[in-house]
User: Fold this.
Amino acid sequence: MPRETVIHNARIVLADEIVSGSVLIREGKIADIATGAVHTGEDWEGDYLIPGLVELHTDHLEGHYSPRPGVRWDKLAAIQAHDAQVASAGITTVFDCLRLGSDEKKGFNVGEMREMADALEQAAEEGRLRAEHLLHLRCEVSAPDVLDHFEPFREDPNVGLVSLMDHAPGQRQFQTLEQYTIYYKGKTGMSDEEFREFVRRRQENSREFAAPHRRVLADHCRARGVTIASHDDATLDHVAESIDHGVALAEFPTSLEAARASHAAGLSVLMGAPNIVRGKSHSGNIAARDLAAAGVLDVLSSDYVPISLIHAPFVLADQEEAISLPAAIALVTATPARTVGLDDRGEIAVGKRADLVRIRRIHGVPIVRSVWREGMRVA
Assistant:
């Protein structure tokens, strides 16, 4: 007998509408969607039924692995803690960011992120994980050692996304030295003299390495069919460069001009869900709600707060008249899935994977009541 489950009495968030009804799950996929009353199966008591969230950019695993400067946690334990947190936030597919190339002191050593990727694969094989984990390589193109860090990942089939980043002062996210000083000097605790030398070295590295490293990485990813992301594009020249490199995802553009140009060129524009929830950027750049209001926001990521990925769509639907709840949910489900070529998920539709989340909303903040991945409850 095929494995079947019926969910009924749910508010089902489809691609363009919300209907009351039931969903039949068979062998891990959505087999049928029916509107109206069905009195068998699991009663969801009128709660929302949405697709499992697809997370493209989260630094959260790094925080579990290195919870304090210089501290390294057991990799499997860190992975399990991270996985439990993202799954309980409704995330069923997560691209874990692994940082390659160091832009600051005491970064990760060559090979350290390869060991983390191997631990992720081991955790999946041993049945430790609730969500499906894929790899997002955050490549600091201005770092002299980024290609050395990248080398062990060249043939890894779990690499689904590669970001080309340059966090040097005067570049992208930090276009002014004042922004950079506020962010990094307080973060690192360097003296004035140490910080001046740090800035000089980072700017020199950017001039020497950023362009050639960006080209090598982009060429490799295009040849292997790996999705490429730009990062913190600020100008039309940045966007033109990204288009030339074959970028499909524009992460965190720092100006409305860059976001509009990226969106018009067919790139998916990604912003942080914490930015939506807070109403502003933590680094002082453009607010994600401004991009939403302009119609150029395509994808949200939880970035550094996993629960924000389910919270932000409801905030948007409440506060932006032109954005319906189904459209807001698509920012964290269908569009990110499509951007990275995962066409088997991200939507409540017959034939799609039964990655599902049960949501109840009280006092404006959504509660994740249960999470299903391929028809099996995982949280």
Q: What stands out?
A: The longest strand covers residues 4-13.
